[in-house]
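Loading example: each entry is read as two labelled lines plus one structure line.
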Amino acid sequence: MTETILVIDDDEAVRYAIRRAFREEGFAVAVAADGNQGLELVEAVSPALVITDLIMPEKEGLETISELRKRRPDLPIIAISGGGRLVGCDFLDVARKLGANEALVKPFEPEQLIAAANRQLGRITSPGRSPSSANPA
Amino acid sequence: MHRETEHPQRRARRAQIAIVTSVVITILVLWGVVATSSMFDRQSAFERTRSNASNLAAAFSDQLAHTLDGISAAMDLLAGEFRARGSAVDLQAWTQGVPLLALGTIQVAIIGPDGRLISTSLDPNARGLDLSDRAHFRVHLDGSFKGLYVSEPVVGRVSKQTTLNITRRVDAEDGRFLGVLMFALPPRKLTTLLDLLEVGDRSIIALEGIDGVLRARFSRSSPDGAITPGLRLPGGPRLDVAADDSHGTYVTTSMVDRVTRLYGYRRVPRYPLVATVGLDLDEVLAATTRRTWSLAALTAAGTLLLGGLAGLLVREIGRRAEREERLIYSGRHLALAQGVAHVGSILRDFRTGVVEWSDGLYAIFGIERDKVAPSLEALMAFVHPDDRAAVLADRDAAVRGEPQKLTEYRIVRPDGAVRMVQRNQCIIRDDEYGNPAHLLVAFQDVTEMREEENKRRALERQLHHSQKLEALGTLAGGIAHDLNNTLVPVITISKLSLRHAKPGSPEYEDLELIYRAGVRARDLVKQVVAFSRKDVANRRLFKVDEVLTEALSMLRPTIPSMIRIELTVGPVPPVMGDPSQIHQVIINLMTNAVQAIGLKHGLILISLEEIPSAKAGEPGLIRLIIVDTGCGMDAETQRRIFDPFFTTKAVGEGTGLGLSVVHGIVSNHSGSVTVESAPGYGTKFVVDLPVAAVDTNAAAVDQRSVA
């Protein structure tokens, strides 16, 4: 069965790039432009993994993560961010604390993202890192 | 100025009291002398008067005795005649042969034993006139009265004049009472002396019987000597006039005319009479009183003058003390004000050449007042040698009357401390021609002020710099987020597309170019973010030497082989901070050094050591030094080297952020980074980081060379 990955990002080009990377790996990809759409799609498509941006219009990524965690405590979440608009605040740290299993800084190499997704889905593709060690929260 | 031991006003008060006391004493002594002298004057005038009265009484007494002796001799003759001729005696005839008038006698009479007039020299028809009631007859009746009797003044029944009747008894040889001889004299005749005497109007000459009854009393107001019969002189009769030479003086006030007189008296020898001279004491003492009054007036004038002078003196002393006090007060005020304001001054008197330095100036020079005497030479000794010419030039300009400008000089204190003083001066012209009289030079110690100003400027620069950096940081943070998003498809899609492209094909080359450009852009954004980060996100204890080793091993493959690296690492304690940021610092500084050397042979020296704190118990520093033998840089470049986006490299070769990131990270670690460089001589960066306040274990110095 093809696993579905839900990508939530307000930047269409980012959504496109991530979708393409995962399609080449054989995943099904659903995309949402903000947190509200994303939460609806979680109900609709039951994704195996959620990849969400943090700074978005309408519904913030951090809010989305905490809501997702309430609804689906077992759903793996990877937070991605281009860094804070405000100096001195690491959103990725906060995302981890709110329940994101892993966090990645944009821009990443496609391989880094795929490896992280595989880790969260329990597919060991790159040796060394275990999911637990990357998830201090 | 501060050494007076006593308050001027207290001192003045004492002087005023002394003056008032001595003036009062002087006035009292003066009045005492006046009183004493008046008293003595009065006393001596009194004594003189007493002596005069006494002498006059003696003279009067002598004259009376002389007159009565003459009358007594005449009576002796008459008595013989009377005895011989009895009642047939013809007195008118007899008186022709005797110079009775020389004796002043106006009538000679003989009274028979029965009291009837036997004969008188005046009126032959008066014979038989009864005179038996007269006292001057009756006194001789019993024969107990011997000698001459002088009657009270009576109006003669024959002469019809007031006369003193001098009588004596004549006895027959068998003792039978024959009669009484009588010589009548106007009282005036007894006192011719009065005319010769310079006695006052109210002085008197009196003739008393030893019975105390007045016989005659003369004065200029009653020259005939007439008196009321039976009158007695006040104070008389004397009890001590029994003796023939009795005499004395006394003072008494007349009940009649209320005049106080000094009386001199003397018993007329051989006769029952007392000669008395009464001198008007008031008149005698009037001169003394006048002298006393004029002396008193003079003394009163002197008292007023002295009192006035003393008053003026006391007031002047008070005013002077007040002025002196004000002067002292304003002197203190000036000294205090100068001290508080760090001001000192020099006052030079052009006419006398006297130079005065204020306490404040000594304080600025850091010396005691008694150590240095004010002079131009002494002043110049304190002026920094390089500034002496300027001081002299300013002084000359002031003397020439040129407008003054504020100038600053350096003063060197005896302990070597250099003070910055601001000098201002003015010429004081105080005569009518406007010639310079004084030169006032004021010095203000502005050392602290200048230091504060410099500190403030540095702070302002620093603040300005950090504000600039913060603004840039905020901007950079915003741009970074958007750029990072934008770079996601660039990197991801180019990388994914490369998988499908045929290596070596133009598409492959293009995709690789895009990918590399994306990676470079990503690195640039990373730098910007690193620069803009103000916090140290992952603070922990770490050892800089370990980070240094890691960074160097990472860099090593990228460093050209012509560049040799020499590393000296001492034992260093851990620091608190973010090791990945310090890693970034090392990478950036090394990149900078490699680029400065370029594609040439060169050397990079790296040292890491601990600099212990100068104060015991305080943590020291860890010092990282990176020296390159590259092209170096000028001062202007050094000044701007830590500014963001400042770069000496061509557009596209450098971001201009590397060193500003270094500066930002080091600052966030409470450290400092400095640069020393000169064009052509390479560059030295020194990074100091504070040691974490924990004990550390030492490690051996590890010197090795990394090719």
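Residues 126-137 of chain A have pLDDT under 50 and may be disordered.
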